[in-house]
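Below is how a single chain appears once it has passed through the pipeline. First comes the sequence as given, then the structure the pipeline wrote out for it. We keep one example in the README because the format questions we get most often are answered faster by looking than by reading.
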Amino acid sequence: MSIETNSQKGPSIECPNCHQSDKTVSASSAQIAAPNRPSAFARNLLKILFWTLAVVWGVVFLCNLTIMILGSISSTQNSDSLLLGYLSLVYPQSILLSCILCLPIVPILTLFFVYRHIDRNYQIKIKAWKRAMEKYNHLSYCSRCAGVFVEGQNRIIPIEQMQAFLYEIQDQNLSMQGLVQ
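Resulting structure:
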């Protein structure tokens, strides 16, 4: 793997460790892996599960409610209509079904609150990832020192510690440079 250095292309960025610029390139040019985006699998799975259960339960509940309303109307009227006669037979069971249909409310609400918690944590992770990516985009790599650094800072970070550096609490130099919000 050949790394194109500043002596071959681009403006020179001096390494804070060796104070030379002939072996420095941007981290992305050096093909150093960027931070991975947080997985949204659990969040999306819970969202699909919640909405599926909520819609199915809602449709069943509305159908049951319709049977109850029409059944109560048919029980108060004397009619020879086949539909109203059927509904008057189903109506007593519909009341029991309504009681049973209220049971899924607790798991559905629990699923909703679990989803909200996971979504909130995901949003926090995404914010941290975006800050890390912004920091990564400003990293330079010195092949002589085998480390990364941000221009204007006096420290070089070994590649093995780069991920921790990207996610660490931002220091004043970066916030003054406008890299951190």
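The first strand starts at residue 24 and ends at 26.

See the next section for the split statistics.
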